[in-house]
Structures are given as structure tokens and as C-alpha cells.
Design brief:
Blueprint lengths: L20 E2 L5 E12 L14 E6 L9 E3 L4 E2 L1 H5 L2 E4 L9 E17 L27 E16 L5 H11 L5 E15 L4 E15 L6 H10 L4 H23 L21 H16 L1
Parallel strand pairs: 4-10, 5-10, 6-10
Antiparallel strand pairs: 1-2, 2-3, 2-9, 3-8, 6-7, 7-8, 9-10
Helix pairs in contact: 2-4, 4-5
Amino acid sequence: MNSITPLSPTPDLAPLHDRLVALSDGRPGLRGTLSVQTRAPSPGSPGEAPSLPVIDFIASNETLDRYGEIILASGWRLENYRRNPVFQNAHQYGDVLFTLGKALITEVRSGPLPAADATPAQHAPAPQDSPPTASQDTPSPLAFSPQPSAFLFQRIQFATDANPIAKIAYGLYRDRFLNAVSVGFIPLRWEEGGPEAGFRRRYLEQELLEVSAVGLPANPDALQLAFRAGALHKSDLEDLLDFLRQFSSRRSSDASGSEAHAASESLAGFSAPPGFETEWLGLARELSRILRAA
């Protein structure tokens, strides 16, 4: 019989010590990846407007991650996240670079779970933590699972006018080149599994603190594929490259007090200043390469 950790105001997280990280509010918790389906909001729904960069995210229930764990959607506690419902990039905070948008709606819904198109993916490989999803050159209506289920629903508005990275992320999610999000949460109640149960651990109740995009900048191949497919425009990549140049120069100047690198300097000669994530520097170089070949 599986053992269930009882609910308490301060759960003992010692059994999870190998996975604990410091979350955005400083408390220890976990981070994990959820497969998502994305779609445009239904006509007439809150936040729906042809001119708004808004996408609905539907996170399925009972999906094993790479740790062999399951997060039950019915167990989400959302009060703290709703106080500051930002949609970040890769759980990074502290600079406008990392804020991609905000959640207009975050709630647990029940009913038929929208099912992904069964067409094999043709553009980008799915993240390691999630099953392959469909490529969609032309969006088609989603089918619905006949089985009622609970799922985490979010309506995200992307800050495309303020952040070029948000514009890229919007295009990648809209056209399903990305199909997962990462969540930061504090487990409140869980049960241990095993070989017979088919899972290592199942979280029955958990407090949501963070929701982040995944794949940026860790998957530059998705950028190139999306660009070739027309999901991203050359001007989008040029704006992002210029934004990264300015960000690198500002961080370098802030850290050293020396004159910032000129925005027009070749990225091939850049060295990552203290605090500037080397993966973003790699993304900038990849963008430069894609644009040269365009």
C-alpha cells in the first residue's frame, strides 16, 4: 500500500531533499515540467481579441515527468501565484529580460480535456520531459477526450510590445514549436509509489509559485525551424539580437564600470560579463548565424 504524506501547514520536505531548490520567494520547493496544449482563446472569452498576443495553456493531468513523478491538477493551490501571476523565462527573475508576460486566468478546470492532434511532429523535437506533440502549419480545431479530467488552465498575455524575447516565445508557443511549461511549487501532500504503481511519487496537493517558459534559449534549433516555417519573421530575430546586445552591454557596464561594448560590435568577439548567462550569449550567436544565412 502506498504511503501518503499528511497535509500540514509546514510539510516535512526532507524526503524530497535531492530535488529541492530555492523558489522565487526564497522557500524550498520543486520545479517540474508539464506538457501543455496551446490554442487561441475562444471568441468572446476574457482576453480574446485578434490584436492581443494571448494564448490558452492547458496542462494535462497524470503525466509522468523524467523523475517518474506525477502532479495531480486537482491538487493545485493557486492563491499565492495569483497575487503576482507573471510568466517568466526559465525561472529567472530580476530583469525585464526574463518577464515574458502575465496570466490573465489561472485556475483548475474539470471536464473534457482537449486532446492534441495525432499528426506526428515535423518541426521541433519535444522537450525531454514531455511527449511529442503535433506540428501545426495550419491550426486545426482540437478534439476532446471523452474522459472527464481535471487540468490546470492558464490564459497568458505575452509582453510582445515590451520584450522581443516575449515576441519570440509567443510565436513558438502559438505555432506549437514549444509544448511544455515549467512550474515551481511547494509540495503539501504526496504519496510514494513504486514499480507496481507505475510512478515514483505522486503529488496530491501543492502550492503553485512559478510558471515559466521552457526551451529558451536552450533550444536554438526551434528558432531556426520556426523561422523557416514562417512562424517567426526576420524582423523578430533582428529585434531580439539587438535586445541581447544591449542587455549584454548594460550588464557588462554595470558589473565593471567600464564603457559598454558598442551595440554594433560583432557578437563573435563578445565575452560574457559577470552575471550574464552564457546560454543567452550562445543564443545571440545563433541568431547572428541564422540572420547571416537568411
